[in-house]
């Protein structure tokens, strides 16, 4: 594995200790040039990097097909919501706290022992229209790993032109580049395109954009600032025609969550991927082995935390499966907790649901 970035002596010792516990051999590169040179000549099984260095390395590696699948973990001094959001938005798979030897070793053990093979383009062509380079590369990496061939548009004119290509299976476009969404989609349909469209907009604009596109088939609107995996999730729902048959709808929501097996002495930390009134998806490379889990997190639209008890419904390890629709982690069914905390959770969920329209 590659370790990239500059670290204090104490942090470096902790990382090496975790790697030794997980039987991983680390090569340390302090500059981007050294890191890329090593990656070009070695079959990397994974990448560890300082959170402040993650973006520059991610842009360089995620745009290369041979490195698109390589798992990347960012290391940060604190696990805040902002740090988590920044890490996953630029294409890393998880954020781990510097000095947390136990947590890092657990994640390294969970990685596949074989190096990844290049993605296989078997699901057709997708257009990614995104002005921000980091976001563009991160979204493309997720879609490429899922089996799509990726084309890019970086201007409104190119987006409008390329969207009419009848060979497209899917178009993912930011509102910044898809400046007349309804007109462009209708023009594409008239040109013979059967592509599904995912419009990425700011959270405050979601309700308005959905209303403007009402009545168009195979079209959806999603949060343009959420994790790149959200795009794949909604795209798979569109292209497969599946319906959400849950008792309560799943809503994308990202926040820091502390979790531990019931009665265990130590918390681990993950990041929520989505939630419903009765469940939580926690993204992590190290799902708990216990079936009953205690969690602590801030519900949507609240500044205070709640403690809940859940039952693990399923676990999804990290793998190179090209049909995966979600990141690695575990699904939790909420079964208990203080009554006030459960009431706050349900109330917050309902308020978020209403806010999103």
- Tell me what portion of residues adopts beta-strand conformation: 25-35%
Unreliable stretches (pLDDT < 50, length at least 5) are none
Number of helices: 11
Q: How many beta-strand segments?
A: 17
Q: For the residues shown, what is the average pLDDT?
A: 90
| Main beta-sheet annotation | 6 strands, antiparallel, barrel
- Separation, N- and C-terminal Cα atoms: 45 Å
The CATH architecture assignment of the largest domain turns out to be: 3-Layer(aba) Sandwich
| Spatial strand order of the main sheet | 12-13-14-17-16-15
* The level-1 CATH class of the largest domain: Alpha Beta
The CATH topology name of the largest domain reads Rossmann fold
CATH superfamily label of the largest domain: Response regulator
- Cα-atom radius of gyration: 21 Å
Order of helices and strands: EHEHEHEHEHEHEHEHEHEHEEEEEEEH
**What is the 3D shape?**
globular
Amount of helix: 25-40%
Features:
single chain, five-stranded parallel beta sheet, alpha/beta, Thrombin, subunit H, 357 residues, six-stranded antiparallel beta barrel, Rossmann fold
Please provide a written account of the structure:
It contains eleven helices and 17 strands. The chain has 357 residues and is of the alpha/beta class. The strands form three sheets. The chain has a six-stranded antiparallel beta barrel with strand order 12-13-14-17-16-15. β12 and β13 (268-275) form a beta hairpin. The longest helix has 18 residues, at 339-356. The chain is globular.
């Amino acid at each position: 594995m590659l370790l990239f970035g500059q670290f204090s002596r104490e942090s470096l010792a902790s990382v090496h200790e975790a790697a030794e516990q997980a039987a991983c051999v680390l090569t340390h590169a302090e500059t981007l040039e050294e890191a890329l040179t090593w990656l070009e000549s070695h079959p990397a099984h994974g990448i560890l990097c300082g959170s402040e260095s993650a973006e520059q390395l991610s842009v360089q590696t995620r745009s290369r097909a041979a490195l698109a699948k390589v798992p990347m973990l960012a290391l940060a001094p604190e696990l805040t919501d902002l740090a988590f959001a920044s890490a996953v938005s630029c294409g890393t798979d998880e954020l781990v706290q510097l000095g947390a030897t136990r947590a890092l070793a657990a994640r390294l053990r969970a990685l596949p022992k074989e190096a990844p093979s290049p993605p296989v383009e078997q699901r057709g062509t997708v257009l990614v229209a995104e002005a921000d380079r980091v976001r563009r590369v991160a979204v493309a990496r997720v879609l490429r790993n899922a089996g799509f061939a990726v084309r890019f548009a970086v201007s409104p004119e190119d987006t409008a032109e390329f969207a009419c290509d009848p060979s497209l299976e899917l178009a993912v476009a930011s509102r910044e580049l898809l400046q007349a969404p309804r007109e462009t989609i209708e023009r594409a349909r008239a040109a013979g395109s059967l592509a599904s469209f995912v419009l990425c907009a700011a959270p405050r604009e979601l309700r308005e954009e959905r209303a403007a596109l009402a009545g168009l088939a195979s079209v959806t609107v999603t949060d343009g600032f959420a994790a790149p995996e959200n795009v794949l999730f909604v795209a798979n729902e569109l292209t497969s025609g599946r319906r959400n048959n849950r008792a309560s709808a799943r809503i994308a929501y990202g926040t820091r969550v502390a979790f531990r097996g019931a009665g265990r002495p130590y918390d681990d930390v993950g990041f929520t991927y989505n939630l419903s009134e009765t469940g939580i998806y926690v993204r992590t490379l190290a799902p708990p082995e216990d079936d009953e889990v205690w969690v602590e997190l801030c519900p949507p639209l609240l500044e205070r935390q709640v403690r809940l008890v859940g039952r693990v419904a399923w676990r999804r390890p990290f793998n190179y499966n090209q049909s995966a629709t979600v990141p690695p982690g575990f699904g939790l069914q909420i079964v208990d907790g203080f009554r006030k905390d459960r009431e706050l959770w349900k109330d917050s969920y309902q308020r978020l649901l209403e806010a999103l329209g």
